[in-house]
Amino acid sequence: MMNIPPPAEELRLLDAELRQLDARRAQLLERRAWLLRVLQPVWAPPPPAARRSETTAPGVQNVLLALGGVLLTVAAIAFTVVSWGHLGIAGRALVLGAVTLAALGAPVPLLRRGLRSTAEALAGLGLVLTVLDVYALHQVAFAETDASGYAAAASAALAVVWAGYGLALDGPRGQREAGAAARLPLGLPLPAALVTAQFPLLLWAGAAGAGDRAMTAALLVTAAFDTAVALRTPLRSVRIVAVVGAYGMGGWGTLAAGWLSWTASGPSAAARAAALLLFAGAIALVAAWRAPHPNAATGTALAGGLITVAAFGGVLRSALPDDSTVLGYLVCGIALLALVRTRLREQVRRGLAGASGCVQAVAVVWALPAAALALLGPVSRAGRIWSGAPATARDAVAMDVPWPPHSTLAPVVLALVAGVLVVAVRDAAWRPQALTCALTLAWATALALPAVLQLPYAAGMAAQGATTVAVLACARPSGLRAAPVLLALLGSVSLAFLSLASEGATLGVLTALTVLFAAAARPPHLRAVAATASLVAATALACAVGASLGWEPRYTALLVLVVPAAAALAAARLSDPVTTVAVEATGAAAGLLAVALTVTHPPMLALVLALLGVLAAATAVRADRRPVGYAAAALFALATWVRLASWGVGSPEAYTLPVTVPALLVGVLRRRRDTPASSWTAYGAGLSLTLVPSLLAAWGDPHWLRPLLLGGAALAVTLVGARHRLQAPLVVGSVVLALDALHELAPYIVQVVDALPRWVPPALAGLVLLALGATYEQRIRDARRVREVLGRMR
Questions:
Q1: Which SS3 state, helix, strand or coil, does residue 270 take?
Q2: What is the C-alpha separation between 4 and 585, in angstroms, rounded?
Q3: Residue 791 half-sphere exposure, CB side, CA atoms within 13 Å?
Q4: 554-580 pLDDT, tens per residue?
Q5: 456 SS3 class
Q6: What is the DSSP letter of 40?
Q7: What's the pLDDT tens digit per position in 121-160?
Q8: Are 557 and 604 within 8 A, CB to CB?
Q9: 650 bridge partner residues
């Protein structure tokens, strides 16, 4: 009978057995570690690193096969060309035919065994042998025939044979093999056939003695064939060859047709060249319609559109005068936009729109020289001011640079493109840019039109002024804003230079521009630019009026000062900070011009500086322009100094006192309004400005009057500072007084020093040091007391 212990006893037994197992396990693990250390070898060499192959097996295979094919090809050529004469007719045919058939038939069993690369190499050898067969056939049987004609027929035959050979090899494998790799044709026969197919038409045209048009037609027909193959073949290698052939032959044929169109001697020749160009354009458009890639479709459609424009434009060029050549092409380019609204493929429509845009851009570039000369030509008038009004507007702008030839219709071209931009561009994202470009082109049209039509000088200026007004009126707070303002400024500057031909025109134009921009400154969005332009025109008008009256530049400066005065009055009434700064900056620039006009005449320069100081002081009255007061003080000081210099005054007090007195008055007002302000802030600069230069002058003055007056003034300043307990007057006055007194005692001190023995100065210095050392503490206490007294002063 089995006795079951109580649970507590059983748990105790289990724990004891587990402790024994753990101890035994630790003992076994320690024994195992010792055995591993005993059995481990002392040193074992590292295993050798595995060598990496420098090439892959397929790469080696392809190199060997290619090299073998090349060697066999070289051998076959050597046999055909060199050793051909050693055999008879039967032997020649038997050997070459057997080798060719063997090379062409060998890929069939190789493909069945899956040896594709070897089959490719032997197939390439077979293709080369067929070329040698054709060469041998010509040497034996057709030696008397034309080489070009035989080459054309042979290339056509080879293309057909190679294409059939490639398709024949693919057919049985496609039926017998199930793998995806086996269903692909050989990569060489079909592309080689397509390459050979590029030559039959060209060689045939050369053999037939065809002209340029027939050769061009042969190129385009070959390009059409390549395009059809590229669009329909599923094989990538064939498609690449077809695309290269299409671009190459098509580009060559298009350039040839374009040259025929450009050099056509009459409408008939131009029409025949246009037919070739239309054929090339049709090829490009069909390719764009069927192209799988959107970017390729857009680019091809763009090329097709340009070719079509060249075709119709060439016909118009042959029937129109030379001046209308660009206009004819432009009309064709604009007409191309009619296809954009059709149901063509989106990429095709985009390409046609791009072609039309390219034609219009080229036309604008052709027309721009006339507009640029009309804009920049008047600048040359700056060296011929009031030399006499020319007869026509063209004579006014084309003085140093000849007028561009064949530019009669330049305004028409610019106007047409501007109209197209307004009508054709409806997309909301591009509409603002299109309107800006249209406005610029319309402005250029109006600018060039008077010179093109050779209008009278006055009529040309009136037309340009009206154009400036019209463009400025197009500026709106939203939408067109920057472009109209910029165009108006450019037009006004050109008009101002254009008016320099005669005195009356200059005065009239500058007056009109001043009034125009002043009136245009009413809208907030034009206020800053228009106000600045008005002040600039007014400055130029003041100079022109002075020159018209025969005044010297120094008197003309008084007229120029009207502009800073007007700017100060206008700025005081403006609330826009940007406009205010612009107006004040323009007024300041006009003031600098007035100063420059009087710089050679000091009395008038002093007057101009004083008037500018008055304007600056009036501006400083405004709360937001307080710092301008410093400029006013500087201008007044400069005016005083210039006036004194013109009188030949050399005393420094004459230059410093006119500045010191206002500075001290300002300090008094400052102390009254701001009681805590320091006396150094209020009076330090004013006192130093007079006393320091006078002290420097007194030290070099041998007479007694200046030191005496300076000492009296310094004593008065010191007493005022002591009376009102002001630190700045007390310190500045006492220092200047002490230095002035030292200057007066200096000669006597020198005499005493020279009369004393040499040991006296060191002895006196030693006594002074001893005295200072003996009373060091008392001096420090006195210095602290003085500092405290000065600190309590304001």
A1: helix
A2: 114
A3: 6
A4: 889 999 999 999 998 988 888 888 888
A5: strand
A6: S
A7: 777 777 777 777 777 677 666 766 777 788 888 888 888 8
A8: yes
A9: none
pLDDT at site 509: 92
Low-confidence winner among 168-182, 517-531, 746-760, 766-780 (lowest mean pLDDT):
168-182
Instruction: Copy the structure tokens of residue 298.
Output: 């857009």
pLDDT at residue 770 is higher than 80: no
Phi, psi of 317 (to 5 degrees): -60, -40
Residue 695: what residue type? L
Q: How far is CA 736 from CA 116, 501, 688, in A?
A: 112, 65, 10
What 3-state class would DSSP assign to 139? helix
| Coil vs helix vs strand at 47 | coil
Distance CA 420, CA 414 (A): 10
pLDDT per position as a tens digit, 17-63: 888 888 888 888 888 888 887 776 544 445 554 444 434 444 444 44
Copy the structure tokens of residue 281.
Answer: 């354009």
Q: Catalogue the long-range contacts made by 678-685 (C-beta closer than 8 Å, 24 or more residues apart).
A: 678/727, 678/728, 678/794, 679/721, 679/726, 679/727, 679/728, 679/729, 679/793, 679/794, 680/727, 680/728, 682/728, 683/726, 683/728, 683/729, 684/728, 684/732
**8 A C-beta contact, residue 185 and residue 235:** yes
Closest by Cα among 727, 691, 730 to 711 = 691
| SS3 of residue 458 by DSSP | helix
Return all residues near 711 (Cβ < 8 A) that are at least 6 apart.
737, 740, 741, 744
CB-CB contact of 189 with 165 (8 Å):
yes
Contact residues for 636 (Cβ-Cβ < 8 A; gap 6+): 609, 610, 613, 617, 658, 659, 662
DSSP string, 669-702: HHHHH-TT--HIIIIIHHHHHHHHHHHHHHHT--
Backbone dihedral angles phi then psi of residue 212, each to the nearest 5 degrees: -65, -40
Q: What is the mean pLDDT of residues 689-716?
A: 68
DSSP structure class, residue 429: T
- Residue 303 in tokens: 């090329």
Q: Which residues are paired to 456 by β-bridges?
A: 392
The tally of CA atoms less than 13 A away on the side-chain side of residue 701 is 19
pLDDT of residue 21: 87
- CB-CB contact of 560 with 612 (8 Å): no
Measuring CA to CA, how many Å separate 211 from each of 80, 216, 229? Answer: 36, 9, 27
pLDDT the model gives residue 181? 38
Helices 116-140 and 57-81: crossing angle in degrees, nearest 10, is 10
Return the structure tokens found at 57. Answer: 């097996």
- The residues, any chain, with a CB within 8 Å of residue 96's CB and separated by 6 or more, are 80, 129, 132, 133, 136
Paired residues of 392 in beta bridges: 456
Q: Is the dihedral of CA 218, 224, 229, 230 positive or negative?
A: positive
Judge contact between 310 and 277, C-beta under 8 A: yes
Which residues are within 8 A (CB) of 237 and not within 5 positions of it... i.e. 6 or more apart?
187, 190, 191
Q: Are 108 and 169 in contact (CB under 8 A)?
A: yes
Cβ-contact 613, 636 below 8 angstroms: yes
Judged by DSSP in three states, 392 sits in: strand
Catalogue the long-range contacts made by 462-465 (C-beta closer than 8 Å, 24 or more residues apart): 463/393, 464/491, 464/494, 464/495, 464/498, 465/495, 465/509, 465/512
Single out the residue of 569, 585, 663, 668 nearest to residue 621, CA to CA: 569
Residue 149 neighbours by CB under 8 Å, 6+ apart: 203, 204, 207
pLDDT over 70 at 736, yes or no? yes
| Chain mean position to CA 185 | 52
Of 233, 309, 298, 319, the C-alpha closest to 274 is 309
**What single-letter DSSP state applies at residue 302?**
H
Please say whether the beta carbons of 568 and 628 come within 8 A. no
HSE of 423, CA atoms in CB hemisphere, 13 A: 10
Q: What is the pLDDT of residue 55?
A: 41
